[in-house]
Amino acid sequence: MSARIHLPSGLVTFMFTDIEGSTRLAQMLGPGYRPVLSEHRRLLRATLAASDGTELFTEGDSFFVAFADASSALDASLAAQRALSKHEWPTPEATPRVRMGLHTGQAEPRDGEYASAEVHRAARIAAAAHGGQVLCSGATARHAAPLPPGASLLDLGLHRLRGFDDRERLFQLVAPGLERQFPRPRTADAIPHNLPTQVTSFVGRRAEREELDQLIDSHRLVTVVGAGGAGKTRLAVELAGGVVESYPDGVWFVDIATVTDPGLVAFAVAAVLGLRPEPGRPMLETLVEFAASRRMLVVLDTCDAQPAACAEVISRLLAGGSGVRVLATSRESLGLPGEVIWRIPPLSVDPAPGGGPSEAVILLLDRTAAARGGRRSGPAESADLQRVVTRLDGLPLAIELAAARLRVLSASQLAERLDDVLGALDAGRDDVEPAPAAARNWVANQQDTVDLAAAARGVAPPVGVRAVQRSATQRHVTMQATVTWSYRTLGPRAARLLRWLAVFSGPVDLATVEWLLNDDPLDPLSVLVDKSMIQAEPNVSGSTYRMLDPIRAYAARRLVDAGEEQTARDRHVAWSLHALQRAYLGPDDRPVTLSLYALDPLADELRAALRWTVTGGSARQGLQLASGLDEWWRERGLAREGRLWLFRLYGRIAETGEQIPEAELAAAYHMHSQHAGADGEFAEELRFSQRAESAARQAADAGLLIRVLAGRAAPLIDMGQFAEAERVCREVIAEAEAEGVAGEALLAVYSLAELLWRRGALDEAAELLGAARPVEAGRPTDRGKRSVDMLLGMVALARGDLVAAHDHLVVALRSRMSYGYLARACDTVNAIAVRCAGGGDPRSAARLFGAAQLTRSAMRCTPGTFGAYWLQEQTSLRNLMGDAAFDTAYADGAELTLEEAAAVALEVEHPDLAAGSIRFSQVEPPTQRTRARESADTPREAER
């Protein structure tokens, strides 16, 4: 670099950039990489030429630039990212994804360069970013004023940069045209593991843990093999938790049971590691490259769910680098070279040294206490408990079932019935199949016992009983034998009920069982409870009935074998639709204010029903289910899940050719658009909004069309087209009034009010919202959100009227928390934080900001309409309090749950109660205009 080039001094902002995955891109493009690299450089230099940046050097795909002004550096970063994204590259796969990092600090150039730790800090910040992302330090955020139009800085919290002892607060530049969703920053303080937290005690297995620990230490692939219910997952997690410190790059748990497609196994592993797909590259290659230079342990659980895909992923991971080790659990080996197959033994049934209870008895005691409501077994039962676990050969699943039986039997009664426990329990019931002859019954039970014990120990059973093992699938031999031991004693009605209950994913009540069978289920249900195939759980409102997952899987297979799956699962879908409809209605079958809390306990059942509609049922019913969960998905931070279900339903429609009315398609597309907007996918948001409009016009439904068009402003606002969004809102509101369907345009009213607030037209916004209040109150699906009060509170904040702001925001927050609108409640907590800051309580403001940000981050919510405003207010608050005080209060708030934060916000003292309040000291009567404004600004007492 020429010495004549002027380098800034004093407070300097340093920028580092490079192309994420440049090596991979060069390999993929070959000779075509050079033009891409050159064009990338040209675009960046053209951007820098329009700013105050001074390029120090360019090396390969990297730039190092110095700026005298932090705002100019952010302007240049934003312009560069937009230029790169808008440029027409040879192919989408050839698009370079550039990461950028900025830091501001004191520096003096010498001999044409900078020798300062601030430069290294900027480089580490860039290294923490992902392709397409702009990260900056807290110092840059403080000095970057004003921000580029429409831009904001998203606080990502404190991070430890590699090579630095302190923690740096990182901010992400957010603006139209920039991608928003990224994995966590690549910093030195990433969590070392994601192992699930267990809620029950871990019993015994000390010798097995030591043996398995030695195997993992000396072999790169260890597979824990055993039957379902043998305790493989629990042991693997317990072991992995003890070796976290041995793996500097982490211990990562991946549950393959949740993966429904073999091609998604690599994606599941990558998601846990925080990796994203790269254009033009298989996910597995990205995963292997990431793991190649790292030392980590990957725990792949339930590999038998996708054995071939798991084997491929493991093989590639192990071949790609020597630092990766894999601990797998499966019901069968993976058949890979170098695999150490460790078969999990049963729990020890021998008394502990010193005469204490065996591991199996300790497990039985613990689970029996839970089954008996916390009442522990007394010493008098010790001998009988030992008899039970010995006869069950220490198999954990069998012990769990025995413990459930001990809820209604004593240990001695159970021990006496172990030769034919189920047959004995069913004796005298008309519903039970006739018992076989005594000799045959004894032989059958002895065969099962020997078979179970041999399989659990990993040895072949005696010749006389091998036929039992060969009659079952090898993969499930022990589980099949264990559950069949109970199932074969069921009569036709009890067996059918067990099969049909397998379609439910969680507990059900008696009314649900009656609905499912359309018959009185009491007799067969009693049989299933007595046989511990269904767990009865008494509670105040009545007993619920739960099936253990292994038994549910067995029953589901029986359901298919019986040819009843289509009927039973269609019936479950119908029940799910019915339950969903009931959540929207009161006892008198009239619509009530929608509470999303009513949908929380239904979520797993509705997912199970959705799964059937996309694989073997009706996609139209699936769309109806999705529609009922519309708000719930977004308010629980699950907009992405909602989008994925809709995409699968579209695929099902294409596969089956099922005819869906245009009105229902329009509603689905409209819902999809809102999910995409909440997920930060703004192009997808606009695309599905347009599809919804097209379908609504074909449906010739005026109200539906207005509702769809009312949502059009959202993608326009998200993309920064505020004037166009305002025009659309006004047109839709006018058309709705002309058509007599004003209520369907509420979304447009809210959007218009936000736009008016944004540009300072506060009086018009207040009048608009005042007129919308009765409309909102008359709509059960909208009134719980209290959007009018939230927006009026924002208008009052902009006016500096803390009294009106307090009144509106408290009403909005109380309603949103009461009805389960948790994402919206975060916005209201933020707004009350602003009200606290304006009322002279900065510490409460910082605490509430911290609490709201934590919840939004946990739910992976985008910043939303007011995101830039919250950041602006936080920056002002930080400047007022100072970094240390702000960070302390903010961190204190981050320890609060949303419920706790809401309680804190609702306890904020009303401004009228504060010393010196003049709210009610006015002598002159209010003018007509003042009265009109207050009627719009203040919630009506009847609605509080």
UniProtKB/TrEMBL annotation:
<feature type="domain" description="Guanylate cyclase">
    <location>
        <begin position="13"/>
        <end position="126"/>
    </location>
</feature>
<dbReference type="InterPro" id="IPR058852">
    <property type="entry name" value="HTH_77"/>
</dbReference>
<dbReference type="InterPro" id="IPR011990">
    <property type="entry name" value="TPR-like_helical_dom_sf"/>
</dbReference>
<protein>
    <recommendedName>
        <fullName>Guanylate cyclase domain-containing protein</fullName>
    </recommendedName>
</protein>
<dbReference type="InterPro" id="IPR001054">
    <property type="entry name" value="A/G_cyclase"/>
</dbReference>
<dbReference type="InterPro" id="IPR029787">
    <property type="entry name" value="Nucleotide_cyclase"/>
</dbReference>
<dbReference type="InterPro" id="IPR027417">
    <property type="entry name" value="P-loop_NTPase"/>
</dbReference>
<feature type="region of interest" description="Disordered">
    <location>
        <begin position="917"/>
        <end position="944"/>
    </location>
</feature>
<feature type="compositionally biased region" description="Basic and acidic residues">
    <location>
        <begin position="931"/>
        <end position="944"/>
    </location>
</feature>
<dbReference type="Pfam" id="PF25872">
    <property type="entry name" value="HTH_77"/>
</dbReference>
<dbReference type="Pfam" id="PF00211">
    <property type="entry name" value="Guanylate_cyc"/>
</dbReference>
